Amino acid sequence: MVPRVKPIDLLIRNGTVLTVDPHGTMIENGAVAVSADRIVKVGREDALSTSCRATKTIDAGGGIIMPGLVNTHTHAAMSLFRGLADDLPLTNWLNDHIFKVEARWLNPESVHAGTLLSCAEMLLSGTTTFCDGYFFEDAVAEAVQESGMRAILGQGIVDFPSPGVPDPKENVAEAARFIEKWNEKTSLVIPGLFCHSPYTCSEKTLKDARRVADAAGSLFQIHVAETQGEVKEIEQRHGVSPVQYLDRIGILNARTLAVHAIWVDEADIECMAGHGVGVSVTTESEMKLASGVAPIPEFLKKGLAVGIGTDGCASNNNLDMLQEMDMTAKLHKLKTLDPAVLDARQVLALATRRGADAIGLGGQIGSIEVGKKADLIIIDTRKPHLTPLYDPVSHLVYAAGGSDVRDVIIDGRLVVHDRALLTINIEPVFEFVSDLARRIAS
Amino acid sequence: MVPRVKPIDLLIRNGTVLTVDPHGTMIENGAVAVSADRIVKVGREDALSTSCRATKTIDAGGGIIMPGLVNTHTHAAMSLFRGLADDLPLTNWLNDHIFKVEARWLNPESVHAGTLLSCAEMLLSGTTTFCDGYFFEDAVAEAVQESGMRAILGQGIVDFPSPGVPDPKENVAEAARFIEKWNEKTSLVIPGLFCHSPYTCSEKTLKDARRVADAAGSLFQIHVAETQGEVKEIEQRHGVSPVQYLDRIGILNARTLAVHAIWVDEADIECMAGHGVGVSVTTESEMKLASGVAPIPEFLKKGLAVGIGTDGCASNNNLDMLQEMDMTAKLHKLKTLDPAVLDARQVLALATRRGADAIGLGGQIGSIEVGKKADLIIIDTRKPHLTPLYDPVSHLVYAAGGSDVRDVIIDGRLVVHDRALLTINIEPVFEFVSDLARRIAS
Question: Which of A29, A401, B150, B321 is the most buried (most CB within 10 A)?
């Protein structure tokens, strides 16, 4: 006789399971069974607890059990510059402040510390996977490994001297070296590259980078159509919009993440949809820098895979994906003067399953489904601002914040428990970063 | 010889004091001395600790010491309906959902519980004073007294049967009775009235209510120019804009709070400024209901006293004033495509000192200045998302959330310590509200 009780590693029980699967399945009194790094069963607790025997059990305390959040765009180490320069125009902010402090203060040690700080913040606000684009990406990868997070890391490419790459001629080669070093080294650190934009990278650079990314099967990230100024510049130089330009030179394919994509027209959207390009929208940063509003409802109509990102902490100024959902939902209602636009269910999907699709990890993460990686979070709903509870999805988008995340599991491993970081010793990170900030400020 | 050491009741020390006074004075290594319900000294800790001897000392742990937040518009008891109906047009949301559940489920007991729940949430997110407009306002006043908060409470007035006032002919008389009952009864509960809007109250009702408010020296709150539909309706009925209409019938004076004030033109703004009308903007609710964007920068140019409010939890869906600041700042940058608009300092003032001005309490609260009431909060900055710390004001507006509030002092009394509520026993409130919600949902 076949044994009816399945031994598993971990059972998460006593919660409402929001699977965020394509049907939006929600299971009250639900549970999730995990073996090694995978979800092996999802269902009602009474059924699972009789069919599974778990080595370890986590009681969700009547809260919400849901997939970990997917932050599709950030520059993690920029937490070093959080609040250093606010309320400034993008070009002034970038050229007079950010590029200057980056040139002066970035090195493998500071990038490592800034990334660890951001990983701590992301873990404590429920992000389990993030997509990064920055410099000294080896140091980023090491910090991510320590944190236990999952991340796609893009070594930054620009056609001027950049931190760690003083000779811009080496920019693509440096990204290729990074990808080669980390490719298939671990299941959590996934290397890729990040061409800054069509206005800071030449056609040759973009094409070379595309070849490197394609050869390795890696994600090619790029800021595109972020400001009206950029669109004007690209149109003057190349006679077409930024998206059309990238299409013409062969950059767009299904392993491309177009970040921002604010000033795009219908032809641009159709072009991206035709190539299977993923899009990352970073609402809070785009508002703070006054860049504009990306047409998410139009992206969704055309079937584009859209994710949400926080952008870096220098222009947000935090990495809270729950808050990002709230602002994204509300902004689109306002923009269209239609409160039914981007409802809570749609926005929750952007922050999880569709975000995973946008960065090419849709088969592995982004929802609670059997066979997917066990990237799960528990939301503590026993709080004044989450009481009463008519609709868990509404609470996640419109009422909750990152600090309501209680536990975090990544790849089957518990990394945050009762809001304590189990992988990062945060005190030395605070010390290093605060000391560095004192020197930067003076 | 005169003794040099002053005995005081409470010394709050070891923090950066953001006074939010008109000069934006910030004091590093600062302290605040409190005697009874008042601030008696503000300065550097070394100076204060030698000149004062305190009965009780609170160590701010290197965090931020600042004035309590002033929520200039909410309907506290609507927390009962948080997340019950989202993503709907205003009229549909109001007529098919909110008015119906209010008619069925509001009574003194439920309003008391919902208000206590909201007081708990507000205290835990740093609000020390709020301005309420609802029904069964006696029950609200009792909950506020229990919570230890400071509040201006407006008994609701509409020209149709409303919860607690089945005969609309009694609406103004009921408000007059409420004001008489609570006027000068306590220093923390300040009665007033709340005419719902120029489209739900007749000219006679508005004028009668104005007389009652003026006779008592009370605040007259009113929703005005919230939607394009309202403006159209008032223009059709009265030939002028909502603001001009209220002016023509003598409703506007310095004890008036105009809530929303979204669809106003320059003449409307000048009219409000001329009468010294205060304005309350509730950005998140106005976005979620797709009402529009109030022209805050234009209000400020004309010298209007502007405050921020959360509105009720059924359209926000929380009472987090720190998040409200963030969204307000970012939205106006986006609207004007100018990231320098509404900088962090201005927005912090709206949530504190200017908000107090808008509701007529500017002489008493809203900043840390000698002689003002001791309504103070402490922000814990030793967290990943608040590290490093270049600029406390930037962090408050762009990075912090309500859950970063550690301690709350109102009228000189400690009401939250280390995130524990000292005045509200929350478990029975959770139980009552959750049970009620189950019945409402079924």
Answer: B321
Rounded CA-CA distance B353/B346 in Å is: 10
ipTM of this model?
A: 0.96
Report the topology of domain A72-358.
Answer: TIM Barrel (3.20.20)
CATH 2.30.40.10 applies to domain A6-67+372-411? yes
Pairing of strands A69-74, A127-134: parallel
Secondary structure in 3-state letters for B148-186: CCEEEEEEEECCCCECCECCHHHHHHHHHHHHHHHCCCC
Residue of B nearest to A310 (CA): B399
Tokens of A322: 């729950």
CA A435 to chain B, closest CA, distance in angstroms equals: 9
Q: What is the pLDDT of residues A283-341, one digit of tens each?
A: 999 999 999 999 999 999 999 999 999 999 999 999 999 999 999 999 999 999 999 99
Q: Give B259-315 as a DSSP string.
A: EE--S--HHHHHHHHHHT-EEEE-HHHHHHTT-----HHHHHHTT-EEEE----GGG
CATH for B6-67+373-419, options being 3.40.30.10, 3.30.457.10, 1.25.40.10, 2.30.40.10: 2.30.40.10
Structural fold of domain B69-358: TIM Barrel (3.20.20)
Domain map (residue ranges) of chain B:
6-67+373-419, 69-358
* DSSP per-residue letters across B394-424: HHHHHT--GGGEEEEEETTEEEEETTEESS-
Output the pTM of the full model.
0.97
Q: Residue A7, exposed/middle/buried by CB under 10 A (0-12, 13-18, 19+)? A: exposed
Whole-number pLDDT of residue A381? 98
**Has residue A3 got a pLDDT over 80?**
no
What spatial distance separates the first Cα and last Cα of chain A, rounded to whole Å? Answer: 74
The closest CB to that of A86, out of B90, B118, B398, belongs to: B398
* Nearest alpha-carbon partner for B148 in B132, B121, B129, B126: B129
Tracing tokens 């990495």 back to the chain, one arrives at A319
Counted residue by residue, chain A has a size of 442
- The neighbouring-strand residues paired with B189 are B151
DSSP, residue by residue, A181-229: HHTTT-SSEEEEEEE--TTTS-HHHHHHHHHHHHHHT--EEEEES-SHH
| C-alpha to C-alpha distance for A137 and A142, rounded to whole angstroms | 9
Q: Tens digits of per-residue pLDDT, B149-167?
A: 999 999 999 999 999 999 9
* Cα B16 from Cα B181, distance rounded (Å): 41
Q: How many CB atoms lie within 10 A of CB B138?
A: 20
For residue B142, count CB atoms less than 10 angstroms from its CB and return exposed for 0-12, middle for 13-18, buried for 19 or more: middle
Residue A64 near residue A26 (C-beta atoms within 8 A)? no
Yes or no, beta carbons of B80 and A388 under 8 Å apart = yes
> Predicted confidence band at B211 (pLDDT cuts at 50, 70, 90)?
very high
Angstrom distance (rounded) from CA A348 to CA A355: 10
**Contact flag A318-B399 (C-beta cutoff 8 Å):** yes
pLDDT at B1 over 60: no
Q: Look-up: residue for tokens 């000698």?
A: B370
Q: Is A437 in Cβ contact with B388 (below 8 Å)?
A: yes
Whole-angstrom Cα distance, residue B156 to residue B171?
A: 8
* Residue keyed to tokens 């990002």: A324
Q: Is B207 on the interface with A (CB under 8 A)?
A: no
Per-residue DSSP letters for A114-136?
HHHHHHHHHHHTTEEEEEEEESS
**What is the reported pLDDT for B93?**
87
Q: Which residue of B has its CA nearest to A123?
A: B384
Region of B62 (left: φ > 0; alpha: ψ -120 to 50; beta: rest) is left
pLDDT in tens, B80-117: 999 999 998 878 888 899 989 999 999 999 999 999 99
